Amino acid sequence: MKKFTNIPVSLIQYALVNRKISHLKLYIHLKLEDNGYVEYNKSSCKKWAEDIGMHEKTVKKSLDWLIENKWITGNRKRSVLRIISYRNLSLKLDLSLKTGYLFEPENYKNFKALCCAVVICYYLCKKRYFNRRSGNIKGFPITNSQKSNGFYPMANGYLAKCLNISISTACRYKQDAEEVGYIKTKRSFSFLEDRSGNRAKSECFEVVKYVNNLEGLPNRIRKGKKYLKQVEADLIHSCIKCKKKHYESKGKK
Fold first, then answer.
1. CA-CA distance, 40 to 72, in Å (whole number)?
2. How many CB atoms lie within 10 A of CB 126?
3. Alpha carbons 83 and 32: distance in angstroms, whole number
4. Distance CA 69, CA 33 (A)
5. Which tens digits make up the pLDDT trace of 121-165?
6. Is the full-model pTM beyond 0.85?
């Protein structure tokens, strides 16, 4: 069995958004078998279920789906299954292979949370790249101290737009990744200012709230001890890394 595999980020995103995490988990586990070929018998599903921490019925359903959708080929009656390459799978699903995550499976306990963290890390790095090219981050100027601690802003709405999912689902992905420790987050605020550039005092809270409601603006205003604050995008620090990877056309990884 191989000790690692470089999973394309696009494949992780596909499985996460389409709710195929169990299927991806089984696919990856079987892919780590020698040369991408796996022997199959009556006890295989039970063994695989124990290896990756899934129910045997879930493994059987996932295997049926993988074969039906040609992630896995071969004939179970002949006792051999072939796990297709990332390149062939990317051609089938129209996915990019530019970036991958080096997965070393000590266990599969937090696999979904890891998938959440990988896509968050990918889009956080992508956002940082474009922000650096533009020279600044809107509402969050980059300073040396902010660079050194590794925290950068990324709104739930931005992640939701990138993945074409709801904001609540994007928030849940972030929570899942943070609970396991794959990412760290910090809340971020800015002070609300009046037309003169002075900080708005807390006594103005009800007035500002009323005006925002009239204009249909989101409720991002918070009442501080002296001044009004506005909730900004959470700051995120990724504890994992995604790397660029070139997959050989004849490779098995």
1. 12
2. 14
3. 9
4. 20
5. 999 988 877 766 665 544 444 433 344 477 888 888 899 999 999
6. no
